[in-house]
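Why should sequence recovery work at all? Because a backbone constrains its sequence more than one might expect. Tight turns favour small or flexible residues, buried strands favour hydrophobic ones, and helices have their own preferences. The token representation captures these environments compactly. In the example below, the structure is given first.
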């Protein structure tokens, strides 16, 4: 059985037009090995990772991949904050499995991780759907974002905390399943102030508490600017199963009553903190504030409508 890295390099050497490399952890040396074997004739190389400061500090992922990828003609890097999948597509073939794009994950360094990798036809569903959703919710990795994450890593390092990267334990009795998650803070314009703890004494008690709960559900890097805070929240909303369901029916204007009925139908009462009217108002406010190019409020109404492109 070939190692994941051997298969990946074999695929990449035969690439014709397009390569997509997706992994939560990407290390510079592994990216370098991979890019070296991709023919110059390949016109598109898209890389997606997640860049969490504590993981970079723990040395399981590198910020240096940013420069390496940008130096390659036709290559681009994107950030998906909730990424966990490992997916490598070369034209119409792909590898799906457990291996990150690191030397140990790929079997290029000892001790190599014990990984699984399966070769598949990339046109088989749900692979195209997965890739489309992934790329539509990913954030382009700009130099500004790179520098902000680097500053967050430095701040964590100065704190002296030792990070062990693993899945965080969740209290099953207290957690809300992702398909039922609802925003609580009815004032989304105050979330960044709550996130940065700026003049929070001026924010009414429950609004502050609701905002803290919302932020706790969204793993946003510390020290990030307001611009990228908005982008991260927008990504979470676009990936929310509940928001995706809403998007399927919001091509026509939804009234307050229809919105409340949507909440009542799709979110069991046990997972609601408010009445359906307050939950709908909070959700509507978040969509209008964080996704203004996708959702709008028709003039002189309290309705919500989704459009393909709204200016």
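From this structural description, the recovered sequence reads:
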């Amino acid at each position: 059985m070939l190692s994941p890295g051997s298969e990946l390099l074999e695929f990449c050497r035969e690439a014709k037009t397009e390569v997509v490399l997706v992994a939560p952890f990407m290390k510079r040396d592994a990216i370098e090995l991979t890019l070296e074997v991709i023919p110059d004739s390949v016109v598109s190389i898209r890389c997606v990772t997640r860049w969490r400061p504590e993981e970079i500090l723990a040395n399981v992922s590198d910020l240096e991949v940013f420069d390496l990828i940008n130096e390659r003609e036709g290559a681009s890097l994107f950030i998906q904050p909730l990424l966990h999948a490992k997916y490598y597509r070369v034209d119409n073939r792909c590898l799906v499995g457990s291996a990150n794009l690191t030397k140990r994950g790929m079997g290029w360094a000892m001790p190599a991780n014990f990984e699984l990798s399966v070769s598949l036809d990339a046109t088989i569903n749900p692979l195209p759907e997965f890739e489309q959703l992934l790329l539509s919710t990913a954030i382009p990795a700009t130099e500004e974002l790179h520098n902000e994450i680097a500053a967050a890593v430095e701040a964590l390092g100065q704190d002296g905390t030792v990070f062990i990267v693993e899945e965080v334990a969740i209290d099953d009795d207290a957690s809300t399943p992702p398909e039922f998650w609802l925003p609580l803070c009815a004032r989304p314009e105050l979330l960044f102030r709550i996130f940065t703890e700026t003049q929070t004494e001026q924010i009414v008690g429950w609004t502050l508490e609701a905002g803290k709960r919302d932020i706790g559900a969204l793993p946003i890097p510390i020290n990030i600017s307001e611009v990228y805070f908005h982008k991260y929240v927008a990504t979470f909303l676009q990936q929310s199963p509940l928001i995706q369901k809403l998007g399927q029916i919001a091509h026509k204007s939804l009234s307050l009553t229809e919105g409340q009925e949507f909440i009542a139908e799709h979110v069991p009462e046990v997972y609601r903190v408010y009445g359906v009217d307050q939950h709908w108002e909070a959700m509507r406010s978040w969509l209008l504030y964080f996704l203004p190019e996708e959702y709008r409020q028709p003039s002189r109404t309290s309705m919500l409508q989704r459009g393909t492109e709204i200016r």
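A few observations help interpret the result. The chain has two domains: 4-153, 178-306.
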